[in-house]
Design goal:
alpha+beta; Alpha-Beta Plaits; globular
């Protein structure tokens, strides 16, 4: 059965989500989060993806950003997910799928809503009771975006509304 077409447009923002297969953990150690961010940096540069917010949860990922060429969204996610899967399977001596199906993406209007969406994504660890406050979580954009931490090696792009 086909998954159906995906609405992809040039120069729009997306909320992208991908989950571990059977909701399994995709990040086990801190080095796994770091490796995913390295892959994200590599592929965001390759496909000129502007990243405005993210949150890496133990079993899923949220990315908020925009891509210039609509066909590059699938290439971006394929590159990140395939290379991270190879790393994960090699490190943990696993085989097979890491991700639950295709990534999901929703178009976001570039207005005040995008800031609300970023705040929502960054609040995931607090809602999941991993931390008390979003800024305490190391694996989201909150610390860089709100507290200006990690600015020696930024991953986020400036958002202009």
């Amino acid at each position: 059965m086909s998954n159906g077409g995906r609405l992809v447009l040039d120069n729009v923002l997306y909320h992208i989500m991908v989950r571990g297969n059977q909701k399994q953990k995709i990040f086990i150690e801190n080095d796994d989060f770091k490796k995913y961010l390295q892959k994200l940096k590599k592929y965001k540069k390759r496909y000129r993806f502007k990243l405005y917010g993210f949150c890496l949860m133990p079993n899923h990922v949220h990315l908020i950003g925009e891509i210039e060429k609509k066909n590059d969204l699938a290439k971006l996610m394929q590159g990140i997910n395939r290379s991270y899967t190879a790393y994960f399977n090699d490190k943990y001596e696993k085989v097979g799928h890491l991700w639950q199906g295709r990534f999901k993406s929703k178009i976001i209007v570039k207005d005040r809503y995008v800031v609300d969406c970023i705040n929502y994504v960054e609040s995931n660890p607090a809602r999941a009771k991993i931390v008390l406050f979003p800024q305490e979580y190391d694996w989201s954009s909150c610390r860089e975006r709100v507290l200006s931490l990690n600015i020696s090696d930024p991953i986020l792009d400036a958002l202009s509304l």
